[in-house]
Structures are given as C-alpha cells and as structure tokens.
C-alpha cells in the first residue's frame, strides 16, 4: 500500500507543478478567494515536496475551480438580472397592449356614420337599428313609386341594379337592369330581363310576360342607352305603360 500512496502523491505533485508553471505571471494562492484575509501560499517546488497529499489535492481543487466558480457566479448574476429586465419589459408591453385595446374599443364605440335617410350622424352602437330604418324607408319608397331594387352589384368598371317596377294596382310588374358605367357616368344602360326565360319561370310569370309585351312600347323591349339625368323621365314612361288601361 505505501508504494501506491507515494505514486499517487507524485501524480498530484506533478499536477500541482504543472498548475504552478501555467501561472508564472501570477502565482496562485492556496485557498485564497476574493475578499479572503488568508495569506497566499506560493506553489513552489519546496511547498509541493513538503505538503501531504490531502493538502495538495485541496490546493489543486481550489486553484482549478476558483476561477470557474467566479465566472459561473457572474454569469448567474447576469442571467438573473437579464431575466428580471425581460420580465419588466413583458409586463410593460402587456400594459401598453391593454391601453391600446381600450382606446380602440372606445374609438369604435364612438365612431359615427352618415345615414342615407337622416341629416344626423349615427353612432356605431345604433348602426343595426339604423339599418332597419333604412329598410323601412326603402319599403315605403316602393309603396310610393312601385320601384324596388332587388339586387346590387359592383365591378371595377360599373354598377348594376336589378329593378322590379310594379303597376299601381299590383297586377303587372316589369323586371330590368340599370347599368351605370364608372368610366362614363353620363349614360345609363337599360336591359329588359323580363324577356329572358331560363326555364324556371312559372305560369304566372309567363302570363305577366305576355301582358307586358302587349302594353309596353317597343323600345322598352329592347336594350337602351340614355342620359343619366333623364332617369326620372324613363321611370315615368315605364310607370305610364304599366298603368295603361
């Protein structure tokens, strides 16, 4: 057993010797740490040869691990500080997001729109109710004039209105398209869709179609193009034809 101990001690001494050589510029102290008042132990050959193996192992461990511990502690402190800053930043962003969301909600609730049937502004909260008023107004206009817009479509080049116009006694009606160009809005096009038959028309519709052909002037059974500012006159002529006795 003694020979093994001597061999182990020699190995430790070699390690300590190598450690001391690698620190020629700044001799390493045994067990010294920042803030320690203990006098440093210089790792010389004499110290190595006269020190027992247990102490040498402690010296090796302290000199090897001291710098690593310092670096680890510094890294740990920096990481904790960064995590704390990140937490504060996340909290600030959450609070800012809540403030912006609240402002957006308040802005939306206070938004106002111009009603097509009123002279006053309509708030966002009253929009659905105003839509009902608009529908009621359009129904009233249909009762007064006999005209109803059954569909509306918009394309990049034009507006298309599906119109149904009914006689005063509700016995006769005509369906047609009015097409307004976005390029030249001075003209409007008339398309007599009541003449079309897609095979799904019932007998009542076909009977109405035959009666229309009898009472309408020939030009209302053809495609027309006329000035937009004469639209009221066009309506009057159609209304007169529908109510002809």
TrEMBL record:
Residues 76-110 form a coiled coil. Keywords: Coiled coil. Transmembrane segments: none annotated. PANTHER family: MONOPOLIN COMPLEX SUBUNIT CSM1. One of its GO terms (cellular component) is chromosome, centromeric core domain. One of its GO terms (biological process) is attachment of mitotic spindle microtubules to kinetochore. Residues 136-229 form the Monopolin complex subunit Csm1/Pcs1 C-terminal domain. GO terms for molecular function: microtubule site clamp. Residues 29-43 have a biased composition (Polar residues). It holds the Pfam family Csm1. This is Monopolin complex subunit Csm1/Pcs1 C-terminal domain-containing protein. InterPro entries: Csm1/Pcs1 (IPR040349), Csm1/Pcs1_C (IPR020981), Csm1/Pcs1_C_sf (IPR038608). It comes from Lodderomyces elongisporus (strain ATCC 11503 / CBS 2605 / JCM 1781 / NBRC 1676 / NRRL YB-4239). Residues 1-43 are annotated as: Disordered.
């Amino acid at each position: 057993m003694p020979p093994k101990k001597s061999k182990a001690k020699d190995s430790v001494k070699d390690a300590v010797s190598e450690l001391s050589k690698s620190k020629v510029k700044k001799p390493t102290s045994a067990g010294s740490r920042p803030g320690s008042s203990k006098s440093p132990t210089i790792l010389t050959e004499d110290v190595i040869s006269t020190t027992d193996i247990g102490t040498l192992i402690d010296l090796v461990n302290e000199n090897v691990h001291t710098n690593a511990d310092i670096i680890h502690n510094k890294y740990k402190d920096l990481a904790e500080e960064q995590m704390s800053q990140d937490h504060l930043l996340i909290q600030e962003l959450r609070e800012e997001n809540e403030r912006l969301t609240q402002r957006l909600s308040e802005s939306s609730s206070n938004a106002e729109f111009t009603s097509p049937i009123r002279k006053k502004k309509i708030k966002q909260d009253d929009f659905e109710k105003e839509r009902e008023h608009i529908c009621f107004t359009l129904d009233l206009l249909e009762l007064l004039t006999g005209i109803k817009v059954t569909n509306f479509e918009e394309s990049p080049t034009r507006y298309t209105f599906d119109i149904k116009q009914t006689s005063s006694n509700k016995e006769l009606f005509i369906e047609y398209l009015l097409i307004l160009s976005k390029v030249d809005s001075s003209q409007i096009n008339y398309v007599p869709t009541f003449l079309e038959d897609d095979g799904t028309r019932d007998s009542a519709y076909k009977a109405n179609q035959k009666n229309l052909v009898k009472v309408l002037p020939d030009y209302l059974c053809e495609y027309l193009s006329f000035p937009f500012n004469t639209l009221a006159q066009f309506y009057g002529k159609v209304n007169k034809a529908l109510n002809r006795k």
